């Protein structure tokens, strides 16, 4: 059930007795933007560690302990053209605590404190806390360079989204933008986010809808205008394959490929797209794994993945640098085989079974269910039953997979060559 608390501030309640905990989530959504991504990333770090009345992590930890060991966190993420700032709290169900005690009400008050009373004095965040969290975030982003797989993935993203500074910037922003922030500029952006972002509050667990509505009735948000931002980022295909090669001190070279694919989340061919990915490189029985890695022993790892909100299919491999051209040709052969429909019924059925198992396991995960529920709010076509989901997956044919494969076209190649010494 959905309740409008203010204009473009909605409360969504999903009662279920599957869990002993109740998960509360407050999500701020704004258009994806390179500059604001950095601000939101730093803001998440600050607001997670303290507030005006909980000035340090010790105070917050004590409060969470008083809430029977509640779990709390603030994170940032993105989908397509939207950037999310998410405040989450996991609490024990009120039925499991002494009568007369409402962990839900206390939890909501804690969220209210964190969201509406950050450690801002005279128009600026507490300077000591601000500088510490700013330095920590910069060190974290710097450390990504040491994880060469992540570095390769981000480098490929830079190539693929060469026309969009917002899309090629990671959801956590970039160091140069973060360095420019001051305690006052971030406090100013906080006020803007609180006043203008579209807000969805979600509660899932063994709760009464009317009670949850009453608890959140005067939560504290104000009306805001709807910022119409399309969820899906749709980048035109370019007839140029963008390539980049770097030589770095790694033992294992990385060859990553990005493919343009104009099939999006819950499009007509979306279920066929999931099966295509499973057959291409998503599972241990996939063509990339069996042929590139196992049969020809040309890769330490080889897999593919989807980004159905940005029209992107990626391939990740770890190889010996001298085998670059062989691996590239072999990967392209696997795609051509899918275009030609060279798929056994056994492989098709196995892929469907693995996707079903993954989906059904996700139905038992409270966080996953909440994310699914959020996406159903954004993409009405995704609002189908479990039975419908399985039926649509079962209906996919080899011809459907062929059709998907024709939409997958190489757009970018990133190669990280290991230095000889």
Question: Architecture of the largest domain, according to CATH?
Answer: 2-Layer Sandwich
Tell me the fraction of residues in β-strands, as a range. 15-25%
pLDDT averaged over residues: 95
Order of helices and strands: EEEHHEEHEEHHHHHEHEEHHEEHHHHHE
Helix content: 40-55%
> Low-confidence segments, ≥5 residues, pLDDT <50?
none
CATH homology superfamily of the largest domain = Metalloenzyme, LuxS/M16 peptidase-like
Explain what the structure shows:
There is one protein chain. By secondary structure, the protein is α+β, with helices and mostly antiparallel strands. It has two domains: 2-216, Cytochrome Bc1 Complex, Chain A, domain 1 (2-Layer Sandwich), CATH 3.30.830.10; 242-418, Metalloenzyme, LuxS/M16 peptidase-like (Cytochrome Bc1 Complex, Chain A, domain 1). It has 16 helices and 13 strands. The strands form three sheets. It has a six-stranded mixed beta sheet, sandwiched between helices. A hairpin with a 2-residue loop joins strand 6 and strand 7 (124-125). Helix 1 packs across helix 4 and helix 11 (287-295) packs antiparallel against helix 12 (324-339). The longest helix is centred in the last third of the chain and has 18 residues, at 345-362. It is globular and about 65 Å long. The termini are far apart.
Provide the descriptors you would attach to this structure in a database record.
421 residues; Cytochrome Bc1 Complex, Chain A, domain 1; 6-stranded mixed β-sheet; 5-stranded mixed β-sheet; Peptidase_M16_C; metal ion binding; MPP/UQCRC_Complex; Metalloenz_LuxS/M16; Insulinase family protein
